Amino acid sequence: MRNSFRFSRCLCAVWMACFVSIVGLDARSWSVDGAGWLTDRKLSREVQVLFGRETALAGADVEDIAVVLLSRIHESGYLDGKVLAKVTTSSGERLELEWQRPSEVFVPRDVDVARVDYELQPGVRFFYYALEVKGSSILDYEGVKGFFFRDPLPFQGRSAMVFTPGRFAQGQAQLLAWLQEAGYPDAKVEGAVQEMIHANGRVSVMVSVEEGALRKVGKVVLEGSLVAPEKLEEQAAQFVGQPLSRHLRQELVLKIRNTLFGLGYPQAQVRLIQGGGAEPLDGAIRVSVDAGDQYRVGEIRFVGHQSSKGSWLRSHLTIHPGDLLNPVELDRTRMALSGKGHFARVEVSTEPSSDAEGVRDLVFELEERFPWALDFFVGWGSYERQRGGFVLERRHLWGRGHRASLKGVVSTKSSYGELSYLVPDFYIKDLSLSGRVKALTREEPSFDHREAGVQAGVSKWFPDAALNVDLLYTFQDLEVSNSRLGENREWVDDRTTSGSLELRVTRDRRDSPVNPTTGFRWYANVEWASDLFGGEANYQRFEAGVSWHREMASGLLIHAALNQAWVVSADGDEEIIPVGKLLFPGGENSIRGYGRGEASLRDVEGKFVGSRANLLLNLELEQLLTDSLSAVVFVDTLAASRLASDGLGDETLSSIGLGVRWRTFMGPVRLEYGHNLNRRPGDPNGALHFAIGFPF
Where would you tag: which of 44, 112, 255, 295 has the fewest CB atoms within 10 A of its CB? Predict the structure, then answer.
């Protein structure tokens, strides 16, 4: 959110650039046509980047652009493709030139060019049709095939099977590298095209493999100025018997060097002793070791900081006076300070200590960032329409990394304000203490509600497991008004208070939190509201979910998510749960055939009522069309029940849909339409959504 204004400005700039690049082609002295609208636009932008927007082209430029276009269509598998250039000179003379191979046509350099219209004639696209494998004893057809092409998947077409000489050579190189890493340093790979049918683009190839002898590490010989030889030999012994490869050698050197670093030898040098280029038949690896001098840490000083407290800085040290000087640990400390976000620069150096020999003082040079930050943001969504706000933040308060922020958000449907305070590393590392005062007014499709209250909690981050645990206490004043809900109860238009404890556990192993392609994320939330915690409401709310992402093939992604939520009353009377805590599914991040809240259960009169148990399944296939543009098809299924005790048997809704996404650093800009498969009376046929951010 806080970067949304900057994102919006960037978004506007990109849209303007795209508009100019699409609409303004005729303003240039050249045009590209013939390969499809999208491909033509992509190639036009590439040419624009390479050659600029000159109003006039020289003869050399005409030829260079043609070669670039020709290489791009050849790289896409159109090996017989041609590029035609219709040149108009300043005198009105017209020339027609044709390229099928680079440097096939020479354009006179003295031609006074007024305009060039390039016509692409891709012709037949070439694909792998047959692959014959000879000589390999460890890889079968399926094992070798993966280095050259993949079988087409749904919605992908045959793009993964495109043949080009470059891809064929690359596949051979990758296969050879794999064999060498598997312990076959003498392996040879040769490939040949057996048949190429130009009429239909079928290509048959043959790959011959000579693996040679399998080489394993027989022994590791350490030479030079050895210290703690038993420890070094113990580390080296772990590599004996493993397949001999370049990667293993590098890992061995790194292992021994880091062992010496841990023993206080920061200048240790470790290198392989080459044996004249030939691999030793006994699998021996000779390693030269120069440990250098051993040092310990002396005085630790910080320079350049203005407001940072020395005690706070020292609390982030992972290396201390008297410790052995370990460069790995020293860099870990530097990264820990840099990761706090309070410093523009963190550098560390060592210098001889005046107290004793074999001691090095550490000097951390710091450059603090400006402590104030003000961000504005604007946005638009299918339900809230226009939205805007600001975040004012004061960082690094009291010189201890504390943060205070003021946030305000206004849309056509809601307003939100928040004042928060954060204490990071509260006594122990990665444990933070937070507090906030917040107020929300929001117009939902079936009612209006207001929330105002305070929240305090602690959060613990476990970096090795990518796990975050939050424990929160919240006290809120809750009010519902202007109810359009069915089955009116006394509490619908009433006002109540809620005091609750909430436990949140989240584990995130995705490669990106905004544009995930691989990995998974799961979470579990448990909220317990009771008069024991100072409020009037008594209920328990549970929510758990998992999302999974995987790249099935080059450019083809699969996304799946399963989420379950239910809410019950503490005393067994499920009719007194505050309406704002009930479940009202539907919208761009729920079941997408419905607008926000429109997938909620209905009463006999067709009016919405909140559910107390939901199970939502989302499944997507996303095909990347360009580096930033993709198409998606999805299926969403929702099971819901009026009472949690009824399980999930009351109602099931499903929708299918498709959409396009533009990937940005803030997440995908989504335009999606969901169509409902089993509509109830009063339900829409479907819903169109515009949103920013991944749906789950």
Answer: 112
* Per-residue H/E/C for 643-673: CHHHCCCCEEEEEEEEEEEECCCCCCEEEEE
According to DSSP, residue 304 is labeled S
Q: CA of 625: how far to CAs of 33, 622, 661, 662, 681, in Å?
A: 19, 9, 10, 10, 38
Chosen CATH of 127-210 out of 3.40.1790.10, 3.10.20.310, 3.30.450.20, 3.40.190.10 = 3.10.20.310
Pick the CATH number of 219-290 from 3.10.20.310, 3.30.200.20, 3.30.1360.180, 3.30.420.40: 3.10.20.310
Q: Which of 118, 123, 121, 122 is nearest to 65 (CA)?
A: 118
State the Cα angle at 548 between 545 and 551, rounded to 5°. Answer: 170
Q: Alpha-carbon distance 175 to 161, whole Å? A: 17
425-692: what fold? Porin (2.40.160)
Half-sphere CA count of 190, side-chain side, radius 13 A:
6
Please name which of 52, 49, 33, 53 lies closest in space to residue 41, comparing C-alpha atoms.
Answer: 33
- Give the pLDDT band of residue 106 (cuts 50, 70, 90): confident
pLDDT digits (tens, 9 = 90+) for 627-644: 889 999 999 999 998 877
Q: Sign of the C-alpha dihedral, residues 478, 480, 486, 488?
A: positive
Percent share of the chain, pLDDT over 90 = 59
Distance CA 603, CA 625 (A): 44
The tokens 């691989």 sit on which residue? 518
Q: Is the pLDDT reported for residue 491 higher than 80?
A: no
pLDDT tens for each residue of 297-310: 999 999 998 889 98
In whole angstroms, give the CA distance from residue 60 to residue 66.
Answer: 10
